[in-house]
# Entry
Amino acid sequence: MHNVLLPRRRFLALGAASLGGTLLAGCDRLSGAPDFQEFLASAEWLTYRIQRLLGGGHALAREFTASDVSPVFKVNGTGMPEGEEYAALRVGNFADWRLRVDGLVAKPLDLSLADLRNLPQRTQITRHDCVEGWSAIGKWQGVPLASVLARAALLPAARFAVFHCADVLEQTLDGTGQYYESIDLIDAFHPQTILAHSLDDAPLTIGHGAPLRLRVERQLGYKHAKYVMRIEITDRLDSFGRGKGGYWEDRGYEWYAGI
Amino acid sequence: MTEIPPDLRMPVHHRRRLIYRHALVTRVTHWINLLCLAVLLMSGLQIFMAHPALYWGQFGADADRPAFEIGADDSGDSPPAGFARIGSSKFETTGILGVSRNASGETVERAFPRWVTLPSWRNLALGRRWHFFFAWLFAANLLVYFAAGLVNGHFWRDLLPSKQQLRPRALFHDIADHLRLKFPRGEASRGYNPLQKLTYLCVIFVLLPLMILTGLAMSPGMDAILPWLVDLFGGRQSARTIHFIAASLILLFVFVHVAMVLLAGPLNELRAMITGRFAIFVEDDHA
# Structure
């Protein structure tokens, strides 16, 4: 009995090991195949649909109290945008900075920081969730995006808001290394979606996106574009960057980052 | 009447009888579940590599103290040393956690070795694509299993321990049998033993749903829709920590489960989970 069992055990162990190796290699091959990546990405559409169905446009992200705020709010992504244009704005304390709002709008806008501070403000203490896994709680102050878009008067064909940013994350020949982001109009008109100029009662630091960053509280951190220079209203996303609706989306991440 | 020593008894004839043990829906959902758990575990480790630290509470990032972390000490001169830290206890884990070899055999700093992550190279975006596709499949599969179990009586008939099985004496007896690796034979092997039932119930009704709930609690979109869910776990970072603990417990279950299958008769157990037919050995009345 003993001699029969040993080879069988060895056979099982060997079989399991080689099966495991083959499966791992197969998974890696699948991971590298664009068609299979598309297939896996179909789950994003389901998540988006279900979350929109359950929460609609109305569900609000949790707001915290001042005692919940993280002692240190981590700076991630760009810490200091390169380029002379941004450097000049920074030296002038962003007095010459203007937010351009254009695209599918009836009244294009050019707004200074003072203009934005004179609009109705909203303050919210919310949790920021990075795609990497960490979270930080901070107090944000800014202008609801809805009130800016209302002033610009969206045309009927409008479907998305695209945020053009000052920072370049990757040097590329075709300019697709420039940071940009986009959201649908449900998020754009959500009451907690604000153009923030302050964090924890102080003007945004360079690391946190001075002079203006987006807050989309029901999505992950990379959607919250920093160094916003221009908001373009559009009916399609495939004409920007590499066509997926954002810098990280162009590099494989979900456009709907509610998960 | 004196007891006859067992070896002097008349030989008892045992007949091999195939019984129908697992319903088709149990078998199909079992194997889909295995596929999902394997992909979810490995893509989950890929995702965890992006920030291999766990916190308790609402928030947690680099400046906050983690309850658990995996990292690498890089002193410059000597090769980097991998470590895992729980609370204030630090363990050197070079080769497995923190520091391991890449496909070219070079030593690299990464939380998990390449042979347990999906994909094997570092790619958070792809890890997330795998994870969220198979998370949907996993949840749908579990739902089918739950619905079938309620309809066909699988839960009450096969998984709920009987009153006798739950008596302390029966439980102690079963623990002793497990420790001696003594498995039920004959008619007794027809159903599950008490420890087996309690373990399955714990995995099916606690750990697997807990994975889904803590996973949902990490989604900022779901947190707006179900704020009570994230409160239930004491915050998003706590939910992330519980997600990791529950996954570890499921992995522990899989190791024990496979070991038990190997010890109890791998071919019989495997056939039962594929064809549904399980062989039991009963005393032959016609001998």
Q: What stands out?
A: Strands of chain B lie at 14-20, 53-54, 68-73, 81-86, 89-92, 99-101, 107-109, 277-283.
